[in-house]
Design brief:
This protein has 196 residues and is mainly beta. The chain is built from one helix and ten strands. Bound molecules: calcium ion (2 copies).
Length: 196
Amino acid sequence: MIFFLLDSVWAADLPDLAPVSLQVPEVLAGPPNLDVTLVWGVTNQGIGAAEGGWSDDVYLSTNAVMDEAAKYVRGWYQSGPIPAGGSFWRTNTVQLPVVASGTYYLLFQTDISNSILESDENNNVMAVPFTFNSTPPDLVPVSLRVAWVLTGPPNLEVTLVWGVTNQGIGPAVREWGWSDRVSVHQRGVGWDGEFC
Ligand SMILES: [Ca+2]
Ligand SMILES: [Ca+2]
């Protein structure tokens, strides 16, 4: 019976997913945490179809090995079937968690949770190096205008005019923008109530 079961497993036509390409620009220049468009391809080089669903994930690391130092970037659910000899290609834009200039690796792993039983589970990672040249912004307020004397009831409304310049070497880019804050406190008195 045991031999029969083993025979059944070995006789199964297992798929073998393997990444065949991961396209990343060799040199990326931009602000920290920039967006980049990736293209990858995965083939099924096994003799059975890849059925069901699995997750294909992208990680970032300073070395070419998928280990605990690799930082998760994003994952995508992928559904089959991918027939034997078949392949699929995907294009996606991700935000890379890079800040400092340097050489990094993008690591792509198909079926990262091992949802698919494959004839070879050790060929699912592809690592591609790239160089990141950081061009950070540097925001600085240059002006804040308000009347010297305000006369009115408590909690009155005033009009403020302010200006901010970016004196960095790259654009200030963030999908949802950022916050600028105006605070008020009594002249000559610090936040903690002490004179300053
Ligand atoms: Ca594989
Ligand atoms: Ca697998």
